[in-house]
Amino acid sequence: MLSWSSQRHGDLAEARYERLISAALRDLIADPFRPGSTARSELGVGVRTYHLRHSRKQAGVARPRHLILYRMIEGPVVEVGRVLHDAMELERHAIFDLPKEP
Prior knowledge:
102 residues, YaeB-like fold, 4 strands, globular, disordered C terminus
C-alpha cells in the first residue's frame, strides 16, 4: 500500500501515510476500544475495525481511505490482520482464522 502511494502520489504522500498508520497503531495500543473502533463480530470473535480518519490529525492526512482490521490477544497485544481500503468488502479480505459469533 505504501509503495502504491509513493508511485501514485509521490514520496511525501507515502511518508504522510506511513506516519498516519503509525499514529493509528499507537492509538490502538493505548486504547484498543477507543472511540472510532467498531466491533465486527461477523468477521470473527473479538475482531474490530478502526478507520484511519480517527488518527489523521497527528499525521496531516486530510481524507484517509483505509481501516485497520484487528483483535486483542493475550492481554494487551493488538493483532493486526490487515490494513484495507474502506471500499473493500471486509468479509472477503478478513484473515483471522476464528469462529464466527452466533
